[in-house]
Amino acid sequence: MRVMRLIGLLFLWSCLIGSWMASQAWAEERPLAKSVDELIARYDSTSCRECHEEIYDQWANSLHAISAFGSGGGRTAATFVTAIEKGLMIMPYSGVKSPEDVQRKHMMGCAKCHLPQLAEASDEAVQEWIELVYAFMEDGDEDAEEKLMELNIGCMICHNRNAITHKWVDGFPEPGTIYGSKEGAHDDEAHPVLKKGPILKESILCGQCHGLGPNLELENPTQCATLYGSYIFAYIPEGGDKTCQYCHMEKTGMGHDIKAYSNETMIKAAIHAEVSAQTYYWRKNKESGVLPMGVVKVELLNKSGHTIPDG
Amino acid sequence: MTGETLDGKEIFSDERIYMPYPGRNCKGSEMGRGPYEKCALIRDTGLEPNRPKHETFEIIFPYHDVTKDGEFVDRVLDADKLVAKVKLWYVPFGEFNGTEVLWYEEDVPVNLTGEWVWKK
Nearest residue of A to residue B80 by CA position? Predict the structure, then answer.
């Protein structure tokens, strides 16, 4: 009996150790993806649609679905080219004299937010990605365009890769696990485990990408959005207490179709304006005399949780 | 903001720009060109959350002076009613190139009333 109890304890202990080691293995870099296809597959969220059709379709309509391609026919892709040609190639110490010299580290300034999973791409895969960008931008290559649009911020980014910020507190994101609102089993072969995501409803989930200012951890800091910074340092001190998710998902009723400046619902929620006019006759001075004056007063109130404009 | 007479003649135009002004590589005073060289802020005129921004636009109604032998005789209003057209645009790329989004639009009457006694 004692032996059985000991065996049981050893078994339990090995399970715990194994689980911890698996999470640490995940925390350490997985083998880098050697190709764009491998990177796409690693974060492919298309299977989510089978059970989460409404949410998936909402997301598909959002900018997150084209984060590395961009709206307006590929504006983000175009900016990657500008970043290379007007940035990296003229920076004397970047090591980039042509697009062929671009490595992962050069693009993480953009990809940190537009394609965080690029951190898991080999330089070979990054080069392949850059070739696709140029093929689309210079030749209008439709196959390249299609592939570029498969690289995005999908379900697996927020619900796995970026689901935990404080890893020493909450653990490292685990393979095969979806971080959501529940715990238990998840009816998906590739992701059979469901765990509660500790920051899913917290603004920091969004803040990981939506910017505090210059990314000083990079060899050459970039800065795109400072929105999360203004949320913390302007909105909160003015008494704000809502999360990004509340305004951009819940209050609008748009869920995962997270929109911003181009959406009428968001525009109405963002700004209140009042205009009034007054007239009088202004005795200016001897030379000018009395002038008929109209005064138009405009009051603008930003009702959102961050500076406008920002991104 | 533009001011027009009732027959559509524009007699006033002014604008305010609300935006962050990021620096270039956090050195000097030039604005950064793109995310790859933008760093911190030199200035920020953006609309801050929950802080009302008040703008005032002063429009002189169109008038002309009547003189005789070089001496001032009278000051005459050319229009005592104007329309102030206020628009707020979101211009994501800094250019009006089809990507701009109209956020707010209002036409406000600006009507001069009352007696104008002293012209000079």
Answer: A292
B35 with B87, same domain? no
Restricting to A residues 279-298, those with a Cβ less than 8 Å away from any Cβ of B are 279-281, 283, 289-298
Containing structural domain, residue B22: 17-49
What ipTM describes this predicted complex?
Answer: 0.95
Query: In this predicted structure, what is the pLDDT of residue B21?
Result: 95
Same domain, B88 and B116: yes
For residue B54, the chain A residues in CB contact (below 8 A) are: 297-299
Query: What is the CB neighbour count within 10 angstroms for residue B10?
Result: 10
- The full set of domain ranges for chain A reads 31-205, 225-311
From the number of C-beta atoms within 10 Å of its C-beta (0-12, 13-18, 19+), residue A255 rates as middle
> What mean pLDDT, rounded, does chain A reach?
92
Please spell the DSSP secondary structure of chain B, one letter per residue. -EEEETTS-EEEE------EEEEETTEEEEEPSSTTTEEEEEEE-SB-BT--EEEEEEEEPPEEEEEETTEEEEEEES-SEEEEEEEEEE-TTSS-SS--EEEEEEEEEEE--S------
How close is the nearest chain A Cα to the Cα of B30, in Å?
A: 15
Residue A105 pLDDT greater than 80, yes or no = yes
Judged by CB atoms closer than 8 Å, whether chains meet at B47 and A271 is answered as yes
Is the minimum CB–CB distance between A265 and chain B shorter than 8 Å? no
Chain-chain contact of A261 with B90 (C-beta, under 8 angstroms): yes
Q: Among all chains, which residue has been given the structure tokens 């690289």?
A: A151
Indicate the helix (H) or strand (E) that contains A57.
helix A53-60
